[in-house]
Amino acid sequence: MKTRFFLRPLTLVLCALVVAACLVARVDARQAQPLRPVAAVPAGSPAASAGAPVAAQKADPFGFSEDEDDTPTFWQIIRGQALNLSLLTAFTALALVGFFRKNELLKTITLVASVAYLGFYKSSLITIVNVYGLLSWNLPTLRDGVLTYFAFVFMLASTVVWGRLYCGRVCAFGALTQLMDKVVPARFRVAIPPALERRAGYIKYGLLALVLLVFFITRNPYAYYRYVEPFWMFSRHASVLEWTGLGVLLVATVFVRNLYCRFLCPLGAFLGVISQVTTVFRIKRWSECKTCKICEKTCEWGAIRGPKIVRSECVRCDDCERLYLDQQKCPHWIIIRRRSDFANRPPVAPAH
Question: What is 236-268 written as a DSSP string?
């Protein structure tokens, strides 16, 4: 049953990737199809002989020789990107295996791979600019953006199925801040009051609305985006002002864990809206979760509020799910074990 439960959502994600790739390939093929002439003139006719120089001059006014421009097919594009697609597929498989197994070591390996591979090696993170392209339907051709399509479709499909899985495991900047959280001493952390934390969570939605408004007014997808997203840091090209702002953000992250992801990321807000509406496979809860506060205190994202899990804030980090299954720490299992011990206890002989 467990294997079937894991394979069903994984199959949905893979099917979505295949369908999206086929649709994009079909659109590219239509765009690349040459125009057909209205009528053909028989070869060797006087009209053809007389009109050939004029037609050739109009078609090629500079006198350059005409070279054949072969538009690559879908499979030629895929073969040309085979290595990159293999690496990206292996990385997403690693992220999903760690997620399904709820393994802390695999999750840490995934975070390191995200920073090293998607961050510094590829420097190809999904950004709010890709959201602009989706909303305005200004999409790159498959030849230029096959990896972007793969990552973007995986991000959307995984968000619909599980929630903000992309934020918790795939995003290189989010992975960097989570790795910082593992090495920064706990005494440096500043505990934010729950009421303030909830209000601060709305900041990223305000930033999302602001950047979308600026985009639809200016129609410039690159206006100011570097000042609301630090993902450019992996390309190591920025102005002094941008590096200064990044330094301030990282220093603040030392004291407030995952500061940017929790309160400032417009892309995270966009995925939060999707996950709040969809999220097919949600985190399970026991009846004891109504009174127990262990998971709520453990969650570093502020996504657990009493018995409720706020799907728009949850990034599927596994912390509460591991506690949910831990028979030594979770009160649900402790109560069951104590009841079993009490039921199996031998009866006390009556006193004479």
Answer: T---HHHHHHHHHHHHHHHHSTTHHHHHT-HHH
252: tokens are: 């603040």
Q: Does residue 215 contact residue 223 with C-beta atoms inside 8 Å?
A: yes
The sign of the torsion formed by the CA atoms of 216, 221, 223, 224 equals: positive
Alpha-carbon torsion angle 11, 13, 15, 21, nearest 10: -150
Name the pTM for this structure.
0.73
Residue 2: CB partners within 8 Å, gap ≥ 6? Answer: none
Strand partners, 200: none
288-298 residue pLDDT tens: 888 888 888 88
Main-chain dihedrals φ then ψ at residue 305, nearest 5 degrees: -130, 95
Give CA–CA dist 337/331, Å, rounded. 10
Q: Measured between alpha carbons, how far apart are the two ends of the chain, in Å? A: 54
Distances (CA, A) of 1 to 67, 73, 75, 96, 341: 59, 41, 36, 18, 29
The residues near 253 (Cβ < 8 Å, ≥ 6 apart) are 177, 180, 259, 260
What is the sign, positive or negative, of the torsion defined by CA atoms of 69, 73, 77, 80? Answer: negative
Strand (E) or helix (H) holding 93? helix 82-101
190-213 pLDDT, tens digit each: 888 888 988 999 999 999 999 999
- How many C-beta atoms surround the C-beta of residue 174 within 10 A? 26
What is the identity of the amino acid at 113?
A
Q: Are 253 and 180 in contact (CB under 8 A)?
A: yes
- Residue 249 has which token pair? 């953000």
- CA angle 173/246/148 to nearest 5° reads 35
Cβ 12 vs Cβ 158: under 8 Å: no
Q: Which of 133, 143, 137, 171 is nearest to 155 (CA)?
A: 171
Q: Are 113 and 210 in contact (CB under 8 A)?
A: no
Concatenating the DSSP letter of every residue in 169-194 gives II-HHHHHHHHHHHHS-GGG--PPPH
Task: Tell me the average pLDDT across 166-179.
Answer: 94
CB under 8 Å to 188, separation ≥6 — which residues?
254, 255
